[in-house]
Specification:
263 residues; alpha/beta; Rossmann fold; two-stranded antiparallel sheet; 8 helices; globular
């Protein structure tokens, strides 16, 4: 496996998941500056296919926000599944599968890479917080993801697969949590714990050796919950959150993905 060069972390550690174990954020670029000329040139070599749902859509909206703000945007970002092999600087993205059915997202990305997105040299699939339900086993979900990545590598050797942690949520207040609990309903705190466990497994497997965009770490505060300043509904990124994460995403692609992608 290729060694991913270290990038500057936003902070040394952050407590994530359902326990108190700090996790390093070495795969998250820490700068918030606009892209340099060298980074712009690096991004021009990428042909990305990104499969996602709503929070991934927030991230794509953040890229559009930055472009409207006049920041350098060397990627042509478009909602489509087609990626031509002769294109340069393309980020094609599509809403794939169904929330609550993560296997459907893997199937949709497989189909795209074999057909309309066969020209991609980078591929990303992101699970959503909605994929973590009361009956979800996050370890089993990670195993399914890991096995699919291994199969994709065999089938699509020209593609660099970028891993992305699943986004977290805000916990409901004490009264709402008590009410949901007595009614036997799944709480947001319990959902965040399952998301945290999945993300822990993903970091353990890939951080440091393969490109990992740690979306959850970027958007979270201590305890692994979504930062309240980054959300208006406790689940999705607001204007500040999506701009912040989008800028980090561009730096990550330029610094930790582009240098390792075959042209």
């Amino acid at each position: 496996m290729r060694t991913i060069p270290p990038v500057v972390a936003l902070s040394a550690t952050l407590t994530l998941g359902c326990g108190d174990t700090p996790v390093a954020r070495s795969d998250v670029p820490g700068t918030t500056a606009a892209l340099s000329t060298a980074q712009v040139n690096q991004l021009g070599a990428l042909r990305i296919f990104f499969g996602h749902q709503s929070v991934g859509g927030n991230l794509m909206d953040g890229l559009a926000d930055l472009a409207r703000d006049g920041e350098p945007m060397p990627l042509r970002v478009a909602r489509m599944s087609r990626v031509d092999g002769g294109s340069r600087g393309v980020l094609a993205h599509e809403w794939v599968g169904e929330n609550g059915a993560p296997a459907s997202k893997l199937v949709a990305v497989s189909e795209a890479l074999a057909d309309s997105a066969r020209g991609a040299n980078v591929a990303i699939v992101k699970f959503c917080y909605s994929d973590f339900q009361a009956d979800t086993d996050p370890d089993a979900l990670f195993t399914a993801y890991r096995d699919q990545i291994a199969a994709w590598r065999e089938r699509f050797p020209h593609v660099t697969f970028v891993h992305m942690t699943a986004p977290t949520v805000r916990p409901e207040g004490a009264a709402a949590r008590w009410l949901r609990t007595v009614r036997g309903r799944f709480t947001m705190r319990a959902r965040a714990a399952k998301v945290g466990r999945y993300n822990e497994r993903l970091r353990q497997a890939y951080a440091g050796s393969e490109p990992v965009f740690d979306l959850a770490a970027l958007e979270a505060v201590a305890g692994g919950f979504l930062n309240p300043v980054f959300t208006d509904d406790g689940e999705h990124l607001n204007a500040l959150g999506r701009r912040t994460v989008a800028r980090q995403f561009l730096h990550f692609l330029a610094d930790s993905v582009a240098p390792n992608v075959g042209r």
